[in-house]
Design a protein that fits this description.
Length: 314
């Protein structure tokens, strides 16, 4: 009874996650002539396998009667060639490997087709942030509340993992946006790896975290007159607001008069309406740190004094 030839690509199936790994051959360290077997990643998306060009395909056949004579294969529309050693596919994209064998009395197995996608391209990766940063020619400033998101995409096997590290820390898996709260210079390193092991080049993002609040003050154009713990000013007084910031610099100054809405300060303030008034001011630096409020309360006096003359004689 004739037994049909058996031929197959050697595979190892990972039962728990449904991903297939091919047995492949990789070179040893430089200087070694022999080849040693290593495993290379094969990723299946539920429809087709993805591999890199580093993976090699191995053909093996069996025949229980007259034995295998030869193995043959071709890639896509190429010609069939006799299989000698494990082979790889260098061109990226989808390919089909066709293969068969014959035995020593001329029996030929059926031709089998196996489709695979070669993915040699690493993912694209970038970093984004949820609040403005402020850049100078020397530094990029950020506040400690900024959250950083790392985004990656891969057009073939897909992104498997995104990793990042801060300063000299170890790489860890990115899952959610994160903040860098400690003041000072920092470097965020990040990269992405696809499902067949292609890794993007390491990227870096340098920031200076500014946690210092600006300082703001209100300066009247003259001295107040103090009476019974109240400050009095003439109607022609002007109130200048100044702010300073030692890191990213002052972005803007805002002020409010008598509990009204805050508006952006541009020039000295004059209040002519007679009565009690309060000016409240705040400064915001270039990364959003807000100063403590400063305020000045006073009475604006625009009424001239009354005067009368009385003769002192009898």
């Amino acid at each position: 009874m004739r037994i049909k030839n058996l031929i197959s690509l050697i595979v190892i199936t990972m039962l728990f996650i449904g991903i297939t790994n091919f047995m492949v051959y990789g070179k040893e360290k430089a200087g070694a002539e022999a080849e040693s077997k290593t495993e290379a990643t094969v990723y299946n998306d539920g429809k087709i396998d993805y591999v890199t060009s580093a993976l090699k395909f191995n053909l093996a056949g069996s025949d229980n009667i007259s034995d295998i004579k030869s193995l043959y294969y071709k890639i896509d529309k190429g010609d069939f060639i006799e299989y000698k050693t494990p082979f790889s596919i260098s061109e990226e994209g989808q390919h089909t490997i066709y293969y068969y064998s014959d035995d020593n009395v001329g029996n030929q197995s059926k031709t089998i087709a196996y489709s695979v996608i070669i993915d040699n391209t690493p993912p694209e990766v970038s970093i984004s942030y949820d609040y403005k940063l402020y850049g100078t020619k020397d530094k990029v400033y950020a506040s400690g509340v900024v959250k950083y998101s790392i985004i990656a995409s891969d057009s073939l096997s897909g992104v498997k993992t995104i990793e990042y590290s801060i300063d000299s820390g170890k790489y860890e898996t990115y899952t959610n946006p994160f903040s860098v709260e400690k003041a000072g210079d920092h470097i965020i390193k990040y990269r992405a790896i696809d499902n067949v092991g292609n890794s993007s080049a390491e990227k870096t993002f340098s920031i200076f975290v500014d946690t210092e609040k600006p300082v703001v003050k209100i300066i009247p154009s003259g001295k107040f007159y103090i009476k019974e713990n109240k400050q009095y000013a003439p109607k022609n007084f002007q109130y200048q607001i100044e702010a300073s910031d030692t890191e990213s610099g002052v972005g803007k100054i805002i002020f409010s008069i008598d509990g009204g809405e805050y508006i952006v300060y541009e020039s000295p303030i004059t209040i002519t309406k007679e009565g009690e008034h309060t000016i409240v001011a705040k400064a915001i630096d270039n990364v959003g740190n807000i100063s403590d409020e400063t305020k000045v309360s006073f009475v604006s006096d625009s009424t001239p004094p009354a005067i009368e003359l009385k003769p002192l004689g009898k």
